[in-house]
């Protein structure tokens, strides 16, 4: 949809230097986990926009984006200061690497890529499908949601930032056979993740991939 003011429903910490911002969903807004939206805020340097991927399993009443906070950033600290009832201009959704009702899923996530990973995992599990998440980060976020996914039967593996991804990726593919693979993260993570996917016997060409920059 075109740029529209969305009302903030909540702002919550989800781990080190990270928040989840939830917005009330307007009747005309439709999106799926893994798509992203553009948020625009007034900063000291003028109006600036940033893109954030939807990290909630659906957008029925509210939807959530996960934001990493750089204290020196122009936009993220302003998002952290938002209160319920505040308004933020939102444009979108955008992107084509999102969950489209596939049955079983495997998600490889680096850093903020865990946002769409948990959203997709929760959506798949809610539909009685299998899910596996391999998440690489030295300071993991969304731990509570990852724990609930694990308790629900999903395969969840958290590895350190410099860890090799081949073995955990192979384990995820073995746990959830014939799954749609998603890969989310910054460019350096994507390179490592795609190499690991190929080495683990996965189909890299069939993966849905979103580069965070």
What is the number of domains?
2
Rough outline: globular
Structural class: alpha/beta
Name of the CATH architecture of the largest domain: 3-Layer(aba) Sandwich
What is the mean pLDDT?
97
Total beta-strand segments: 11
What is the N-to-C order of secondary-structure elements (H for helix, E for strand)? EEEEEHEEHEHEHEHE
Low-confidence segments: none
Largest beta-sheet details: 6 strands, antiparallel
Largest sheet: spatial strand order: 4-3-6-1-2-5
Please characterize this protein's 3D structure:
By secondary structure, the protein is of the alpha/beta class. The chain folds into two domains: 4-94, Elongation Factor Tu (Ef-tu), domain 3 (Beta Barrel); 105-211, 3-Layer(aba) Sandwich (Rossmann fold), CATH 3.40.50.80. The protein has helices at residues 76-80, 114-126, 143-151, 166-175, 187-199, and strands spanning 4-15, 18-24, 36-43, 46-53, 62-68, 87-94, 105-110, 131-136, 155-159, 180-185, 208-211. The strands form two sheets. A six-stranded antiparallel β-sheet has the order 4-3-6-1-2-5. A five-stranded parallel β-sheet has the order 9-8-7-10-11, sandwiched between helices. Helix 4 crosses helix 5 (187-199). 42% of the residues are buried.
